[in-house]
Structure formats: structure tokens, C-alpha cells
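look at this stuff:

>
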Amino acid sequence: MYLVLDPQPRSEGEMERIAVVCLGNILRGDDGLGVCLKSILENRFEHFDFIDGGICGSRIIDILSRYRKVIIIDSSDFGGEIGEVREFNLDEIQEKDIFSIHFLNLRRLIELSRLLYNRPEDVTILCVQVENMSLGQGLSSSVEKNLDNIVEKIEKFLLEIVQPTVH
């Protein structure tokens, strides 16, 4: 297997678009929330490329290398209320006691993409507090009950990026 290093954007204007990488594993309960959110959000915003990042394997480097700005959505346990959405950067993820099945690998893959391609420059992580990331299919009833609220919070965050308010 060979890793092909292609530092050029794949198409004209692709660098201006923003990637929203939704992480998750549908076989681990609430960890599958990212996949669910991608299917809900992907047709609501034209300025974003919604990408199923799966379980954050090495293929994500190719995705990360194409964008200047990347937003990552992931199920997490940061001690919040079920359905709470919080914004973090990479340094905060390491400093705070935040659990995600994907974070250790994710940080290394972002660093490798930056080393090889100098991209992405800007990474924001939206963590969604969930209840259960153990083996099993389907979202927990508490996350399912909060799904509309979770979607609304993420939509508000994304709208602020494309239509920033002047303060």
C-alpha cells in the first residue's frame, strides 16, 4: 500500500469550502450520532461539505488536506448534560478531561496532515454529550429525545460561520 501525497486541492474553489467531518460508529450506540447528524444536516447548507469521517482512520488525512477550515462533530463525554453541544479546539481536547473514542487518533492525524500539507489551518471540534458509547446499534432514548435540540444548536453554530453577526 502506498500513500500518495497530493498537496493540491482537488478542484477549483475547494479550499474556500468548509469541511464538516462527522465522526462515529453506528455499532457503538450514541457514537453513531455523527453519522445521523450528517444525514440530517448535509442538504441544509450549501457552503459546507459534510463528510462521513467514520471511525477516524488514516483515510481522513486526504480529507483534512483539502480544506483550510475543518469542523469536526463527534459524540463525547465531557461531563455535560445529555445533548449539550460544546465547541473545543485541539489544545482544549488534550487539556480537559474529554472522552471520545476518536480523539487520540484524530489529533495525530490532524498533526500529520498539517506536517504533510500545511492543512487544515483551522480546526474546530463540536462535541455532543451523549449517554452510551458501548457496543450496540441505535441511539439511546435520551439522545434520541434531544436530537432536534442538538441539530438546532449545530445549525446555529454553522449559520454564524456563513452569516456572522456584527457586534
Q: What stands out?
A: The longest strand covers residues 69-76.
